Amino acid sequence: MNVLPKGVRHVPSCLDPAAQKALLEDIRAVVAEAPLFQPVMPRTGKPLSVRMTNCGSLGWVADRNGYRYQPTHPVTGKSWPAMPERLFSLWDEIAGHDAPPEACLVNFYDETAKMGMHQDKDEADFAAPVVSISLGDDCRFRVGETTRGGRTTSLRLASGDVVVLGGEGRLAYHGVDRIYPATSALLKNGGRLNLTLRRVTKA
DNA sequence: AAGTTTCT
DNA sequence: AATG
């Protein structure tokens, strides 16, 4: 039996199709104002396979200088677009944490994109959970423990699913093994959007 | 290694 | 190092 690590919660079909469409429209507006950019690995400059943008007061970026949160888009230099109201609402319903999210990282996966196993640890406070929302094509999501090399389990995530990494699961290693092309009609040109809500600073 | 490749 |  593949049981999820402690503190890792999968909420299948958390968003119904209407809610997914509404959220997608919000994200389209975000991307129109803050275009997807190509993150690269620190030091090596090797590009990640996902493209990304953010909304909220802070956004996560990756460039030759490292990983960090910053208030502006790395290409346009403008402030990130405001966090859509429905993301604050979703956080209130699901996170079990008083302070509101400060960052929403928007990752776009085309059919070839993957994400290696990693921890979300660039935040100053791990008390708040990480809330992850899937839109579009299915993916295989892998979750491990707080240390590399521990046991991992995988689950298939579909559009509208939400995953929460909180408590003991807050620093669980996780990644995306693969995208299952053409498994959702939500995104007309295919692919998968993942929205990650995080608190960055100490509340 | 938030990568890429490889194989018990 | 996992073994997706």
TrEMBL record:
Residues annotated as binding Fe cation are H118, D120, H174
GO BP terms: namely:
oxidative RNA demethylation
Q: Does the keyword Oxidoreductase apply?
A: yes
Xref: PROSITE patterns? FE2OG_OXY
Keyword Zinc, does the record have it? no
Record keywords, A-Z: Dioxygenase, Iron, Metal-binding, Oxidoreductase
Fe2OG dioxygenase domain location: 100-201
Instruction: Return the cofactor note field.
Output: Binds 1 Fe(2+) ion per subunit.
Q: Where does 2-oxoglutarate bind?
A: N107, F108, Y109, R192, L193, N194, L195, T196, L197, R198
Show which residues constitute the signal peptide. Answer: none
Q: Which cofactors does this protein require? A: Fe(2+)
Xref: PANTHER family = ALKYLATED DNA REPAIR PROTEIN ALKB-RELATED, NUCLEIC ACID DIOXYGENASE ALKBH1
Protein name, UniProt field:
DNA-N1-methyladenine dioxygenase
Task: List the source organism.
Answer: Fulvimarina manganoxydans
